[in-house]
Design goal:
6% helix, Porin, 18-stranded antiparallel beta barrel
Length: 429
């Protein structure tokens, strides 16, 4: 259905599309890496090793078409990975995005987007939240619509909606449908300052899954994952955006969220195995449960160019995060990125990030995660770049659930990349 909507819009604007300025820009990345714990686990699965060397090739294709009132983009990234010691984990992933922006009038514009992605849940969720997930294939389909209306010269109204469907063919994780809608009026009260009020509603529906355990070992949730889990949330945030100068900007947001969770929990009960004998046995029975949670949310981004060579970005935030196991967390993060240009062709980058996650219901998991990632890259030619990088990650998990234990995980990675970017070609104008 979303694809049909975007196709109809494309057909309706066919004359403009044919007259657009089209371009095609490809690139390819070849890398070789070593990962000391690619499954990010204390004990590797039987028949596998804990570490491995990984060869990757990642072609990237970008197509852009523009007219006076229309912008069309198509981007696809298709990384293929080969594991030297564990070929069963060889994979070809993809992240394909299509968007169409139409300026209908000086005041009104819309942007539609379609995303198809195939990835591995472990790496995808670690990057998003610092929460370890079971490694399995994930297919995700996302449709988004954004509308912007200029109510006056200084006030804009932004309305957006998103639908995302996640599918796990292995059945090890619950499939999910996520709906989200946001409305935000924005007031530009000075040439460099904006203030807005964001009101969001979200609904997540999880189905299927790997079942329940009293210890949470299968799902990592204390028995909350599986069929029938739903999470409804509402978030209100006041957002302030200020460009102090050409080299410094600040964006702040603060508000409150309220969530309603319905899930299946394993409830302890005493039963008589051999009535009428007065002997009792403790068992865990799956029963419907519900919870209401709320909390403070915020976001902050400070960007500063200290010189022509050195720049930094400091980010922090707190939000509600729903993981692939149908668990909901208070998720707080702090990150810092820095970039220093040693010469016209050589740049050093550094990234550090810390995540702190507190589960809202279930086993009461607390997850602390950090990663540090330095790299250096050099332009060998105008189109060819070499990059040498490394990273170290660490996660500590504790839980208040019955029979649960703490875990302490870490890994380091090193890799080298060769990136070749072709110049823009096949341009029609």
């Amino acid at each position: 259905m979303p694809g049909a909507v975007l196709l109809c819009v494309l057909c309706a604007s066919a004359p403009n599309v044919r007259a657009a300025d089209w371009s095609f820009t490809p690139s390819v990345t070849l890398s070789e890496s070593y990962n000391s714990n690619y499954q990010f686990t204390t004990t590797p699965l039987p028949g596998t090793t804990k570490s491995d060397f990984i060869t990757s090739i990642t072609p990237v294709f970008s197509i852009t078409g523009t007219t006076e009132n229309t912008i069309f983009t198509f981007d696809t990234v298709t990384p293929a990975q080969a594991y030297i010691k564990n070929p069963k984990y060889d994979t070809i992933d993809t992240d394909t995005t299509t968007s169409l922006t139409e300026i209908w009038s000086p005041r009104f514009s819309t942007t539609e987007s379609l995303v198809f992605a195939h990835n591995q849940t472990l790496e995808q969720q670690l990057q998003a939240s610092g929460i370890v997930a079971r490694r399995t294939d994930q297919y995700q389909f996302t449709y988004g619509l954004n509308c912007t209306y200029g109510m006056s010269e200084t006030v804009n109204l932004i309305v957006s909606g998103t639908y995302a469907r996640s599918i796990y063919p292995s059945g090890q994780l619950p499939d999910s449908d996520v709906y989200q809608a946001t409305i935000m009026p924005v007031w530009s009260f000075s040439p460099r300052s904006d203030i807005g009020l964001s009101s969001s509603l979200a609904y997540s529906d999880y189905s299927g899954g790997s079942g329940l355990t009293s210890s949470g070992a299968e799902t990592g949730s204390g028995g909350t994952a599986g069929s029938g889990t739903t999470i409804k949330s509402a978030t209100e945030m006041l957002i302030f955006d200020r460009n102090f100068s050409e080299t410094m900007s600040l964006k702040l947001g603060a508000g409150y969220y309220l969530s309603s969770l319905r899930f299946i929990a394993l409830t302890p009960e005493l039963i008589q195995p051999f009535p009428p004998f007065p002997f009792y046995k403790l068992v865990f029975v799956p029963k419907p449960a519900k919870a209401t949670e709320g909390g403070f949310v915020f976001s902050a981004d400070l960007k500063k160019d200290w010189s022509e060579r050195f720049s930094t970005t400091l980010s922090a935030g707190r939000q509600q995060f729903n993981d692939v196991n149908a668990n909901s967390f208070d998720s707080t993060f702090l990150s810092e990125t820095a970039s220093y240009r040693l010469s016209e062709v050589t740049t050093v980058n550094f990234t550090a990030k810390y995540n702190m996650n507190d589960q809202l219901s279930g086993s009461g998991q607390k997850i602390d995660y950090y990663i540090i990632n330095p790299d250096i890259q050099r332009n060998l030619t105008e189109n060819l770049t070499v990059k040498l990088a490394g990273s170290y990650e660490h996660e500590f998990t504790s839980s208040s659930g019955i029979g649960t234990t703490a875990s302490n995980l870490g890994r380091y990675c090193t890799w080298v990349e060769l990136i070749y970017r072709w110049p823009r070609f096949l341009a029609t104008h």
